Amino acid sequence: MNKTKQWIVQALVVLGSSAAGTTSAQIPDMAAGQKRAQVCYACHGENGVSKIPGTPHLAGQDRAYLVKALQSYRNGQRQDPTMTAMAKALSDADMANIATYFHLAVKNARGETLAALIQTNERLKPVGTVAIAETPVAAAARTADSIYGSTCTACHASGAAGAPKLGDKAAWSARIAQGNSKLYEHAFKGLNAMPARGSCSDCSDEELKKVVDYMIGKSK
């Protein structure tokens, strides 16, 4: 067995042990965890490798510890404005998914993360059956405030990593003076600690513009 396969097997053992005694619906979903974890990148770095002094790495952290920490922020046992705002928006399943993703977000010598290798391994599994589904109903359009609440609030509600707080007219005045097009550009490309697209990788350009307009309207 080569080293890459050994690495995948070790990670699958981790997933198997975390799911022991649970139903299949309770097994952590790393793809969902990675998607939810993107909002953490602004402070904790991409894949949980922090570049901000004093901000801890999350990559490779113990899964149970990460779940407990998030639960503690959500229930108020631990206090931090940014973490509390983020944790309150997470379900127990979200926490398990995020913790599993970061636990496995460590890289081998080839720069591959365990999480990515397992996801690739899962995609390559043969498909058992094919079903013809009914035409899906189009999902309802997301509102600007709902996107802000799920993606932007962790930093813009507390001012974390230098983000201007929503409603802080003094912090926003100079930014608003640059014009909406410049603020749209910042949202698309990222600025300082804010990653490209504000960590909302599945947001369309129009949705991002609506969120920027929403934040401007709340901060004039």
What key attributes describe this structure?
220 residues, Cytochrome Bc1 Complex, Chain D, domain 2, disordered N terminus
Mind sketching the topology for me?
Blueprint: H1 3-19, H2 30-37, H3 41-44, H4 63-75, H5 81-88, H6 92-103, H7 114-123, H8 144-156, H9 169-177, H10 180-189, H11 205-219
Helix pairs in contact: 1-7, 2-6, 4-5, 4-6, 5-8, 8-11, 10-11
Q: Care to give the gist of this entry?
A:
This protein is mostly helical. Helix content is 54%, strand content 0%.
**CATH top-level class of the largest domain:** Mainly Alpha
Radius of gyration: 19 Å
CATH architecture of the largest domain: Orthogonal Bundle
In whole angstroms, how far apart are the ends? 61 Å
Helix content: 40-55%
Q: Could you name the ranges where pLDDT drops below 50 across 5 or more consecutive residues? A: 3-10, 16-25
Classify the secondary structure makeup into a structural class. Answer: mainly alpha
The general outline is globular
CATH superfamily of the largest domain: Cytochrome c-like domain
Instruction: Tell me how many strands there are.
Output: 0
| Total helical segments | 11
Average pLDDT, rounded to a whole number, is 76
The fold-level CATH name of the largest domain is Cytochrome Bc1 Complex, Chain D, domain 2
How does this structure look, described?
With 220 residues, the protein is mainly α. It has two domains: 3-17 and 27-123, Cytochrome Bc1 Complex, Chain D, domain 2; 144-219, Cytochrome Bc1 Complex, Chain D, domain 2 (Orthogonal Bundle). 54% of the residues lie in helices and 0% in strands. The chain is built from eleven helices and no strands. The longest helix is centred in the first third of the chain and has 17 residues, at 3-19.
